[in-house]
Amino acid sequence: MKQDKVTSLFWLLFGIFIVGESVKLGLGKIQEPGPGFVSFLGGICLSLFSVVLMVKSFLVKPRIKDKEARNETGKRYGFFFALIGVLIYVFIFEWLGFLISTFLLVTFLLKCFEQKRWWKILLTAGVVSLSAFVIFDILLKAELPAGILRGLSVLSLK
User: What is the pTM of this model?
Assistant: First the structure.
């Protein structure tokens, strides 16, 4: 689909921009990540996923079903939903902390783009948030904001 090609190109360019800015901040080492390390990994992931979407959009021939035709309007605004969700995430990240804000972002994005039951969405968001927390905070010892959980001795929150 043409929309997938344009969207994937945008996210690829944005991912490359994030990688470039992250390198300027400094990556550090695996044992001692620098301020640009997490955003560097995010930019790499974003770029890779957008390349996969771009390749898929060139290889797969579009099939329009009745259900897809009805959902076309929702897909058209998906980019804006994602952008608004990420912007809100940026503003609540320090206040609510990594775990809660990431959980809310993933829940919002899954509800916008997936037609799944609530329990599956909440379970997925919980697994994604906790996995990212374990990787970055516990294994890589990156400084993630604890937010409103700061006073609790949950996991290894500071």
Answer: 0.54
